[in-house]
Design brief:
Immunoglobulin-like; alpha+beta; 18 strands; five-stranded mixed beta sheet; disordered N terminus; binds copper (II) ion; 331 residues; single chain; five-stranded antiparallel beta sheet; disordered C terminus
Length: 331
Protein backbone atom coordinates (compact mmCIF):
# COMPACT_ATOMS: atom_id res chain seq x y z
CA UNK A 1 0.00 0.00 0.00
CA UNK A 2 1.61 3.18 -1.10
CA UNK A 3 0.20 6.55 -1.87
CA UNK A 4 1.64 9.11 -4.20
CA UNK A 5 1.01 12.78 -3.99
CA UNK A 6 2.47 15.31 -6.30
CA UNK A 7 1.10 18.77 -5.74
CA UNK A 8 1.83 21.83 -7.75
CA UNK A 9 1.40 25.27 -6.26
CA UNK A 10 1.67 28.70 -7.70
CA UNK A 11 5.12 29.10 -9.19
CA UNK A 12 6.67 26.01 -7.71
CA UNK A 13 6.48 22.29 -7.83
CA UNK A 14 6.53 20.17 -4.73
CA UNK A 15 8.99 17.37 -4.23
CA UNK A 16 7.04 14.70 -2.42
CA UNK A 17 8.37 11.50 -0.96
CA UNK A 18 6.07 8.61 -0.36
CA UNK A 19 7.54 6.12 2.05
CA UNK A 20 6.40 2.57 2.48
CA UNK A 21 7.93 0.42 5.18
CA UNK A 22 7.37 -3.22 4.37
CA UNK A 23 8.12 -5.70 7.14
CA UNK A 24 8.74 -9.40 6.71
CA UNK A 25 5.17 -10.18 7.74
CA UNK A 26 3.95 -8.13 4.83
CA UNK A 27 2.66 -5.19 6.82
CA UNK A 28 3.19 -1.95 5.04
CA UNK A 29 3.36 1.52 6.49
CA UNK A 30 3.04 4.62 4.44
CA UNK A 31 4.02 8.21 4.89
CA UNK A 32 4.68 11.36 2.98
CA UNK A 33 7.47 13.92 3.00
CA UNK A 34 7.23 17.05 0.91
CA UNK A 35 9.40 20.03 0.28
CA UNK A 36 9.02 23.00 -2.00
CA UNK A 37 11.18 22.59 -5.06
CA UNK A 38 11.15 25.25 -7.72
CA UNK A 39 11.32 23.99 -11.27
CA UNK A 40 14.80 24.51 -12.64
CA UNK A 41 15.33 27.03 -15.39
CA UNK A 42 17.97 25.91 -17.89
CA UNK A 43 20.32 28.63 -19.08
CA UNK A 44 20.82 28.17 -22.77
CA UNK A 45 24.02 30.10 -23.42
CA UNK A 46 26.58 27.75 -21.90
CA UNK A 47 28.13 26.12 -24.95
CA UNK A 48 31.70 25.19 -24.14
CA UNK A 49 34.55 24.58 -24.71
CA UNK A 50 35.24 27.85 -26.43
CA UNK A 51 36.55 27.24 -29.97
CA UNK A 52 40.05 28.51 -29.20
CA UNK A 53 43.02 26.79 -30.75
CA UNK A 54 45.43 25.24 -28.29
CA UNK A 55 48.89 24.49 -29.68
CA UNK A 56 51.17 26.03 -27.09
CA UNK A 57 51.19 26.46 -23.31
CA UNK A 58 50.34 30.14 -23.95
CA UNK A 59 47.29 29.10 -25.98
CA UNK A 60 46.16 26.91 -23.09
CA UNK A 61 46.68 29.78 -20.65
CA UNK A 62 44.57 32.10 -22.83
CA UNK A 63 41.86 29.47 -23.15
CA UNK A 64 41.82 28.88 -19.40
CA UNK A 65 41.42 32.56 -18.49
CA UNK A 66 38.80 33.04 -21.23
CA UNK A 67 36.82 30.07 -20.00
CA UNK A 68 37.09 31.21 -16.40
CA UNK A 69 35.50 34.51 -17.47
CA UNK A 70 32.86 32.54 -19.32
CA UNK A 71 32.14 30.49 -16.18
CA UNK A 72 31.80 33.75 -14.22
CA UNK A 73 29.47 35.14 -16.86
CA UNK A 74 27.31 32.05 -16.91
CA UNK A 75 26.94 31.89 -13.11
CA UNK A 76 26.16 35.61 -13.10
CA UNK A 77 23.63 35.58 -15.93
CA UNK A 78 22.28 32.11 -15.19
CA UNK A 79 21.42 33.30 -11.69
CA UNK A 80 19.54 36.25 -13.14
CA UNK A 81 17.59 34.06 -15.57
CA UNK A 82 16.63 31.74 -12.71
CA UNK A 83 15.67 34.75 -10.54
CA UNK A 84 13.45 36.12 -13.32
CA UNK A 85 11.76 32.74 -13.62
CA UNK A 86 11.05 32.73 -9.89
CA UNK A 87 13.49 29.85 -9.36
CA UNK A 88 15.19 31.41 -6.34
CA UNK A 89 16.96 28.25 -5.16
CA UNK A 90 18.80 27.95 -8.49
CA UNK A 91 19.54 31.68 -8.52
CA UNK A 92 20.96 31.45 -5.00
CA UNK A 93 23.03 28.36 -5.86
CA UNK A 94 24.56 29.95 -8.96
CA UNK A 95 25.31 33.27 -7.29
CA UNK A 96 26.71 31.65 -4.17
CA UNK A 97 29.03 29.58 -6.37
CA UNK A 98 30.04 32.78 -8.15
CA UNK A 99 30.78 34.61 -4.89
CA UNK A 100 33.08 31.83 -3.76
CA UNK A 101 35.37 32.29 -6.76
CA UNK A 102 38.64 34.06 -6.02
CA UNK A 103 39.72 36.51 -7.11
CA UNK A 104 36.42 38.11 -8.04
CA UNK A 105 35.74 41.53 -9.54
CA UNK A 106 34.65 43.97 -6.81
CA UNK A 107 31.71 45.15 -8.94
CA UNK A 108 30.37 41.63 -9.20
CA UNK A 109 30.78 41.16 -5.45
CA UNK A 110 28.97 44.45 -4.70
CA UNK A 111 26.04 43.81 -7.07
CA UNK A 112 25.56 40.10 -6.55
CA UNK A 113 26.11 39.57 -2.82
CA UNK A 114 22.86 41.27 -1.70
CA UNK A 115 20.95 39.58 -4.52
CA UNK A 116 22.31 36.16 -3.55
CA UNK A 117 21.18 36.81 0.02
CA UNK A 118 17.69 37.80 -1.19
CA UNK A 119 17.47 34.77 -3.46
CA UNK A 120 18.47 32.44 -0.61
CA UNK A 121 15.89 34.08 1.68
CA UNK A 122 13.15 33.77 -0.94
CA UNK A 123 14.09 30.12 -1.57
CA UNK A 124 13.95 29.41 2.16
CA UNK A 125 10.56 31.08 2.55
CA UNK A 126 9.05 28.26 0.50
CA UNK A 127 9.77 25.77 3.29
CA UNK A 128 9.13 22.08 3.62
CA UNK A 129 5.40 21.61 3.75
CA UNK A 130 2.87 18.87 3.53
CA UNK A 131 0.92 18.47 0.35
CA UNK A 132 -2.61 19.81 0.32
CA UNK A 133 -4.93 18.57 3.10
CA UNK A 134 -5.09 15.00 1.88
CA UNK A 135 -4.10 13.41 5.17
CA UNK A 136 -1.78 13.81 8.12
CA UNK A 137 1.79 14.79 7.41
CA UNK A 138 2.98 12.32 10.00
CA UNK A 139 1.35 9.49 8.09
CA UNK A 140 4.27 7.14 8.64
CA UNK A 141 4.15 7.34 12.40
CA UNK A 142 0.35 7.23 12.48
CA UNK A 143 0.18 4.23 10.18
CA UNK A 144 2.95 2.51 12.11
CA UNK A 145 1.01 2.90 15.33
CA UNK A 146 -2.14 1.61 13.68
CA UNK A 147 -0.32 -1.37 12.27
CA UNK A 148 1.25 -2.15 15.64
CA UNK A 149 -2.22 -2.22 17.19
CA UNK A 150 -3.41 -4.75 14.65
CA UNK A 151 -0.44 -7.07 15.13
CA UNK A 152 -1.52 -10.45 16.47
CA UNK A 153 -1.05 -10.53 20.25
CA UNK A 154 0.74 -13.27 22.12
CA UNK A 155 3.03 -14.29 19.28
CA UNK A 156 6.70 -14.12 20.11
CA UNK A 157 8.58 -11.46 18.25
CA UNK A 158 11.72 -12.49 16.44
CA UNK A 159 14.47 -10.31 15.09
CA UNK A 160 13.73 -8.47 11.90
CA UNK A 161 16.66 -9.04 9.60
CA UNK A 162 15.20 -7.99 6.31
CA UNK A 163 13.11 -4.92 6.88
CA UNK A 164 12.98 -2.83 3.76
CA UNK A 165 12.12 0.83 3.71
CA UNK A 166 10.96 1.63 0.22
CA UNK A 167 8.95 4.29 -1.47
CA UNK A 168 8.78 6.82 -4.22
CA UNK A 169 10.14 10.31 -4.62
CA UNK A 170 8.05 12.52 -6.85
CA UNK A 171 8.62 16.03 -8.12
CA UNK A 172 12.08 17.47 -8.66
CA UNK A 173 11.04 20.04 -11.24
CA UNK A 174 12.22 19.59 -14.82
CA UNK A 175 15.01 17.28 -13.64
CA UNK A 176 12.56 14.69 -12.33
CA UNK A 177 13.05 12.75 -9.10
CA UNK A 178 15.91 10.50 -10.30
CA UNK A 179 19.08 10.66 -8.25
CA UNK A 180 17.33 11.91 -5.11
CA UNK A 181 19.29 10.75 -2.08
CA UNK A 182 17.29 9.14 0.74
CA UNK A 183 18.71 8.11 4.10
CA UNK A 184 17.66 7.20 7.61
CA UNK A 185 18.94 8.76 10.80
CA UNK A 186 18.28 6.75 13.93
CA UNK A 187 16.72 8.62 16.84
CA UNK A 188 17.43 7.70 20.44
CA UNK A 189 19.47 4.62 19.64
CA UNK A 190 22.87 3.52 18.49
CA UNK A 191 23.35 3.83 14.76
CA UNK A 192 26.25 1.90 13.25
CA UNK A 193 28.88 3.96 11.46
CA UNK A 194 28.60 3.65 7.70
CA UNK A 195 31.29 1.65 5.94
CA UNK A 196 33.14 3.79 3.39
CA UNK A 197 32.39 2.71 -0.17
CA UNK A 198 35.13 1.51 -2.50
CA UNK A 199 35.48 1.80 -6.24
CA UNK A 200 33.11 4.72 -6.68
CA UNK A 201 33.64 6.68 -9.91
CA UNK A 202 32.28 9.92 -11.30
CA UNK A 203 33.27 9.91 -14.96
CA UNK A 204 33.52 12.93 -17.19
CA UNK A 205 31.89 11.73 -20.38
CA UNK A 206 30.64 13.89 -23.26
CA UNK A 207 31.20 16.94 -21.06
CA UNK A 208 28.87 15.58 -18.38
CA UNK A 209 29.32 14.03 -14.98
CA UNK A 210 28.28 10.37 -15.00
CA UNK A 211 26.45 9.76 -12.76
CA UNK A 212 25.14 13.28 -12.33
CA UNK A 213 24.46 12.57 -8.66
CA UNK A 214 26.41 10.03 -6.60
CA UNK A 215 25.58 9.21 -2.98
CA UNK A 216 28.41 7.81 -0.86
CA UNK A 217 28.85 7.18 2.86
CA UNK A 218 31.17 9.41 4.88
CA UNK A 219 34.83 8.47 4.38
CA UNK A 220 34.42 7.14 0.85
CA UNK A 221 36.97 7.59 -1.91
CA UNK A 222 35.65 8.74 -5.27
CA UNK A 223 37.67 8.62 -8.48
CA UNK A 224 37.06 11.44 -10.94
CA UNK A 225 37.97 9.90 -14.27
CA UNK A 226 38.27 11.75 -17.57
CA UNK A 227 36.79 9.58 -20.36
CA UNK A 228 36.68 12.42 -22.87
CA UNK A 229 39.38 13.33 -25.39
CA UNK A 230 39.46 16.87 -24.00
CA UNK A 231 40.84 18.22 -20.74
CA UNK A 232 38.72 18.69 -17.62
CA UNK A 233 39.38 20.43 -14.32
CA UNK A 234 36.84 19.29 -11.76
CA UNK A 235 36.45 21.33 -8.61
CA UNK A 236 34.04 21.99 -5.79
CA UNK A 237 33.55 25.02 -3.59
CA UNK A 238 31.17 23.20 -1.22
CA UNK A 239 32.66 23.54 2.23
CA UNK A 240 33.94 21.55 4.05
CA UNK A 241 34.40 19.14 1.13
CA UNK A 242 35.98 21.55 -1.36
CA UNK A 243 38.67 20.23 -3.70
CA UNK A 244 40.29 20.90 -7.06
CA UNK A 245 41.59 18.18 -9.35
CA UNK A 246 43.69 20.47 -11.48
CA UNK A 247 43.71 20.08 -15.24
CA UNK A 248 43.89 16.49 -16.45
CA UNK A 249 43.59 14.77 -19.80
CA UNK A 250 41.88 11.71 -21.23
CA UNK A 251 42.42 8.62 -19.10
CA UNK A 252 43.49 10.77 -16.18
CA UNK A 253 41.94 10.27 -12.79
CA UNK A 254 41.90 12.08 -9.46
CA UNK A 255 40.90 10.55 -6.15
CA UNK A 256 39.12 12.51 -3.46
CA UNK A 257 38.13 11.29 0.01
CA UNK A 258 34.89 12.81 1.31
CA UNK A 259 35.12 13.08 5.07
CA UNK A 260 32.15 15.29 5.93
CA UNK A 261 28.44 14.80 5.32
CA UNK A 262 26.51 17.02 2.94
CA UNK A 263 26.09 18.00 -0.70
CA UNK A 264 29.21 18.57 -2.79
CA UNK A 265 28.51 20.47 -5.99
CA UNK A 266 30.81 19.49 -8.84
CA UNK A 267 31.84 22.01 -11.47
CA UNK A 268 34.47 22.10 -14.20
CA UNK A 269 36.77 25.05 -14.64
CA UNK A 270 36.72 24.60 -18.39
CA UNK A 271 33.11 23.68 -19.09
CA UNK A 272 30.50 25.80 -17.36
CA UNK A 273 27.67 23.51 -18.48
CA UNK A 274 29.07 20.64 -16.43
CA UNK A 275 27.30 20.24 -13.12
CA UNK A 276 27.04 17.27 -10.82
CA UNK A 277 26.87 16.33 -7.18
CA UNK A 278 28.37 13.95 -4.69
CA UNK A 279 26.12 13.66 -1.66
CA UNK A 280 27.99 12.41 1.39
CA UNK A 281 25.68 10.52 3.74
CA UNK A 282 26.36 9.93 7.43
CA UNK A 283 24.26 6.78 7.67
CA UNK A 284 24.60 3.14 6.67
CA UNK A 285 20.92 3.19 5.60
CA UNK A 286 20.67 5.10 2.34
CA UNK A 287 19.60 4.77 -1.28
CA UNK A 288 19.17 6.79 -4.45
CA UNK A 289 15.93 7.08 -6.34
CA UNK A 290 15.84 5.58 -9.82
CA UNK A 291 14.61 7.61 -12.81
CA UNK A 292 11.02 6.89 -11.81
CA UNK A 293 11.68 8.00 -8.22
CA UNK A 294 11.58 4.52 -6.62
CA UNK A 295 14.02 3.75 -3.83
CA UNK A 296 14.65 0.89 -1.44
CA UNK A 297 16.76 0.71 1.73
CA UNK A 298 17.44 -2.81 2.99
CA UNK A 299 18.28 -4.33 6.37
CA UNK A 300 16.87 -1.58 8.55
CA UNK A 301 16.61 -2.59 12.23
CA UNK A 302 13.41 -1.67 14.13
CA UNK A 303 13.47 1.76 15.71
CA UNK A 304 12.59 5.40 15.41
CA UNK A 305 14.11 7.23 12.48
CA UNK A 306 14.10 10.46 10.60
CA UNK A 307 13.92 9.72 6.91
CA UNK A 308 15.65 12.51 5.01
CA UNK A 309 15.68 13.31 1.32
CA UNK A 310 17.97 15.52 -0.69
CA UNK A 311 17.43 16.55 -4.30
CA UNK A 312 19.46 19.07 -6.24
CA UNK A 313 16.33 21.05 -7.15
CA UNK A 314 15.23 21.57 -3.55
CA UNK A 315 16.73 24.23 -1.35
CA UNK A 316 16.98 21.99 1.68
CA UNK A 317 16.56 18.43 2.82
CA UNK A 318 13.09 17.08 3.48
CA UNK A 319 12.64 15.23 6.76
CA UNK A 320 9.94 12.95 8.13
CA UNK A 321 9.65 10.85 11.30
CA UNK A 322 9.39 7.16 10.59
CA UNK A 323 8.76 4.21 12.88
CA UNK A 324 10.07 0.82 11.88
CA UNK A 325 8.30 -1.51 14.31
CA UNK A 326 9.52 -4.88 15.61
CA UNK A 327 5.90 -5.95 15.99
CA UNK A 328 5.63 -6.14 12.27
CA UNK A 329 7.81 -9.25 12.33
CA UNK A 330 5.26 -11.36 14.12
CA UNK A 331 3.43 -13.91 12.21
CU1 LIG B 1 35.31 19.92 -18.17
Amino acid sequence: MTTRRNARGAGRTVLAVTVAVALVAGLTFTGVVAVGAPASSPWLGEDLPLPLTVKTPQDLAVKQVAERQYLIFNLLAGGKVAWDAGDFATAATKWEALLRLHPLDADIERVIRPLARDARAKAASAPASATSGAGPTDGAAAAATAAARTAAPGVEARPVASTVVSGTVTGGGTLGPGGAVVWLKRLGGEMPRPTPAKGKVVAQRNKSFVPRVLAVPVGSKVDFRNEDTIFHNVFSLSKPNEFDTGLYKQGGSYTQVFKKAGPVQLLCNIHSTMIGYVYVVDSPYFAQADAGGAFSIRNVPPGEYDIEVWHEASSKEARQRLTVGADGARG
